[in-house]
Amino acid sequence: MTDRIWTISNSISISRVLFLVPLAYCLFGDFENNRLWAAGVIVLATGTDFLDGFLARRLHQVSEMGKIVDPLADKIAVGTLALFLVILGDVPIWYVVAIILRDVLILAGGIYIKKKKNIVTQSNWPGKFAVSAIALYLLFSTMMIDSLETWRMYSLWLSVAIMVFSLIIYTQRLFIGRQVPQEQAQ
Q1: pLDDT score of 184
Q2: What total number of domains does the chain contain?
C-alpha cells in the first residue's frame, strides 16, 4: 500500500467532482438535447469510479488517502447531482434527504472507527451497489424520457432498498464489529 497522496487513481477520483461543472452547464442550459448531454457527462463520471479502483490495484497505488478520496468524491458528485435534480423538480426532496442522511451516518461511523481503532474503513460491495443504483435512478431522472418512466420508478425503489441494506451492513460493521468482506478499493 502506498502512502502517496497524488496518485493517478486519486486524481481520477477527484476528477469526478470536477465533472459537476459541465454537468450543471448541461442540466441548466437551454440548448438542444441538453439532458442527453448531461446524461453523457454522468456516464463519463461514473466510468471514472470504476477506472480509479482498477488503476489503484493495477498500479499498486492503493492508499489510505484513496480510501477516503474515492467514496468522498462519490458522495459529493451524487449528492450534488441529486440536489440539481431537486431544483429542476425531477427528484423528490425526501430521496435526497435519504441519500445525505445515509452518507452522513456512514461518514460519522467511519470517523468513529478511525478514532477508536485507527482504521480507515473501505467501501464494501453493498455500498458500491447502492451508489450505482442511486446513479442509475439519477441518470433516468436526468434524461426524463417518457418511455423510460417505468424503469425510472423501479430504479428509485431499488436504490432505496439497496441504500437501506448497505446502511445495515455498515451499521453491523460499526456496532457489532462484524467484518464484511471488503473490496480492495482505493
Answers
A1: 42
A2: 1
